[in-house]
Structures are given as structure tokens and as C-alpha cells.
Design goal:
Strand content: 25-35%
Structural class: alpha/beta
Order of helices and strands: EEHEEHEEEEEEEEHEEHEHEEHEE
Largest sheet: 6 strands, antiparallel
Helix content: 10-25%
Number of domains: 3
CATH architecture of the largest domain: 3-Layer(aba) Sandwich
């Protein structure tokens, strides 16, 4: 029996995946999975179940009234989950918290496959997951419990969704809780994880992309680029990767590989340190040519520390640039804050 995978992305950043039958309505599938999406009538009359379809194809039928969903709203991607029947995998943004819908983040176990030190800048952490591979949207993150403590740290997936082996890029913080654990980690050690989380993820690519990465904020873009390499895209994609020090430029070889696998993908790097020997000194805002902004007809994705996010916002405002879409995620060494 044909079914489609539906990602329900709640306003608190929690994402739950459900399988919806080829002729099943999303609301019915959610209830079958014990997720109480908002609804009153379930007949296309009240509009209470209105959500936004971020990606995928679907039918809405004609059994709802205009007061519940206008033609303008439907044209803008709004849907009634009580009438929506998917025709492909879909991503749906739910305007309520996960707790209000009687659901929560998924929890799963993993074990260390490899920890590679990338100089004194970062670690590349690779984990194995027994059983069903975790599903997430490219760009999302997960909370990883630090063994021996009651704390967790948040890291973006750098790997392809749905695989049994997951990758993460972890900033090396001297004396940091996770950094100290990773220094002594051995293959086979167990980790507990909660997720996926976050509203920072790759949407349907319908126009040029500008990806802005700061430091280990490169991680979610590696996941996005792997998806683009597998599914293909006719749109140009440019990534600017900015770091503080020369030695913070890690995994550039991966970007070189993607430039060979993704037609239309280009990238550049820059280093903020005034003493750098790099050919481009400065911040990403200083190395953002007008050509990659496509006159504003561009979707911008930014992942980096709060000062970088704020600087890009100010740069766009001062330059009079309004991207078609601007998705960003601020992070600190201990947490991620999606917007």
C-alpha cells in the first residue's frame, strides 16, 4: 500500500514524522498516530485545522467552504488538514506547540562510531543508530545527552536524513563539557538523543540559494548539500563559509566534492583574523558579491553565532536588500535557537 511521509513541524521546533496513506487525510493520519492536530468540525467548515504546507504535493478536494479556506490562502500554501490528501512526501508547519497537540520529541539511542579531531577547531562525531534510521529535515538539530551528566548539547546533523550513520560537527571548546567527553570517547559508547528539532531546514528549491555558514554552522549545510547532490537542482547555489582563524576552516574538501557533484554550486571562504594569510580577510558580509543576491530573488539560509546573524541582518537592511526568504539559526557552543 502506497504511503507518504509527512513531517509535522510544530511552532516550538519539535518535528514528528508520520506515514499517511495515499488516500488518507492528514488529520486522520495524525490522530491514528496519537497526535492531536487542532480541529473542531473535521468537515472543512470551521478552519480550525488550518496549517501551512511548506513542501510537497497534495489534493484539497472541494468539500470545504471558502470561509474556512479562501482561494488566496490556498494559493499561499495554507491547507486544511481535515481535507488534505498527500500525493507526495510533505512538510507541514503547525501553528501550535507540540505539547498542545499531545505529542513530544522522539528519543533514541546511538553509539559512537568515530570521533575525529579537526585540529584544535572541531570534532567530527559519527554515530551509529541501531534499528530504524532516524528521520529529520536537512538543517535540523538534535539534543545529545552528555554521558555522566544531566546536561545535553545541541548539534545540527551534517549527514543525509534517514541513514543509520549520523554525522555532526562539534566546536572544540577547551574545558567544555562535551569537548572533554569527546577527548576520551571510544567506539561503541552509548549516547541518548532527543529530536529532531528546529525550524531551520531546507525548503523546496524554487529560486537561487545563498548559504551563509559561520564556524561549525557549516554542519547543517553539509546535510542540505548532500540532499541537493542526490535529488538535483536547476537553481544556482552559492555558499560563503566564514571563520575566525585560519585553522577554523574545516572540511573544505567536502565543499570541493560538492562543487563537482552539484551543477551550479559554488563556494567561497573568508577569515576574520586580521593576521590571516587567507586570500579573503574579513567577514561574510564583506565577501558577498551582488551577483549571488540575484536582485533579491534569492532564498538565504544562515547558520552561525548571534553576532554573525545580527551583522547579516544589518547588512541587508543598510544595502536595501530584501531576500525572497531568509531562514536563519543562531547558535552558541551550548545551544541552538531557531528562527
Amino acid at each position: 500500500m502506497t504511503s507518504y511521509r509527512i513531517a509535522l513541524n510544530f511552532e516550538d521546533g519539535v518535528t514528528r514524522f508520520i506515514d499517511c496513506g495515499a488516500n488518507e487525510k492528514v488529520l486522520d493520519s495524525a490522530f491514528r498516530n496519537r497526535i492531536n492536530l487542532p480541529m473542531d468540525c473535521s468537515d472543512g467548515v470551521c478552519g480550525t485545522c488550518k496549517c501551512r504546507a511548506e513542501a510537497g504535493s497534495y489534493d484539497l478536494g472541494d468539500e470545504y467552504i471558502d470561509e474556512a479556506l479562501t482561494q488566496e490562502e490556498a494559493g499561499a500554501g495554507l491547507v486544511l488538514t481535515c481535507q488534505m490528501v498527500p500525493r507526495s512526501d510533505c512538510v507541514i508547519s503547525v501553528p501550535m506547540s507540540s505539547t498542545a497537540c499531545k505529542t513530544a520529541t522522539a528519543q533514541f539511542a546511538a553509539s559512537v562510531a568515530q570521533v575525529a579531531r579537526l585540529g584544535d577547531a572541531a570534532y567530527e562525531l559519527v554515530l551509529d543508530v541501531p534499528g530504524a534510521a532516524p528521520v529529520f529535515l536537512p538543517g535540523q538539530y538534535v539534543n545529545i545527552g552528555v554521558p555522566g551528566s544531566a546536561q545535553h548539547r545541541s548539534y545540527s546533523f551534517s549527514s543525509l536524513p534517514g541513514e543509520g550513520r549520523m554525522g555532526f560537527l562539534v566546536k572544540q571548546v577547551p574545558g567544555g563539557l562535551m569537548s572533554s567527553w569527546l577527548d576520551a570517547a571510544r567506539p561503541g559508547q552509548a549516547l541518548e538523543m532527543t529530536g529532531p528539532l528546529g525550524s531551520f531546514y531546507l525548503r523546496a528549491v524554487t529560486r537561487p540559494l545563498l548559504l551563509l555558514a559561520g564556524g561549525t554552522g557549516l554542519a547543517p549545510f553539509l546535510s542540505m548539500l548532500e540532499v541537493l547532490a542526490r535529488q538535483g537542482t536547476a537553481q544556482p547555489v552559492h555558499l560563503i563559509y566564514g571563520v575566525t582563524r585560519d585553522q577554523d576552516l574545516v572540511l573544505v574538501d567536502r565543499l570541493v566534492e560538492y562543487a563537482g557533484r552539484i551543477p551550479g554550486f559554488t563556494f567561497s571562504t573568508c577569515v576574520a583574523d586580521a593576521a590571516t594569510t587567507h586570500e579573503r580577510q574579513g567577514y561574510v558580509t564583506q565577501h558577498m558579491p551582488a551577483a549571488v543576491l540575484h536582485g533579491g530573488n534569492v532564498d538565504v539560509y544562515l547558520c552561525g553565532p548571534p553576532p554573525m546573524v545580527d551583522a547579516v541582518h544589518k547588512h541587508f537592511k543598510s544595502a536595501g536588500i530584501t531576500p525572497a526568504n531568509f531562514h536563519y539559526e543562531k547558535f552558541t557552543p551550548t545551544q541552538a535557537v531557531a528562527a
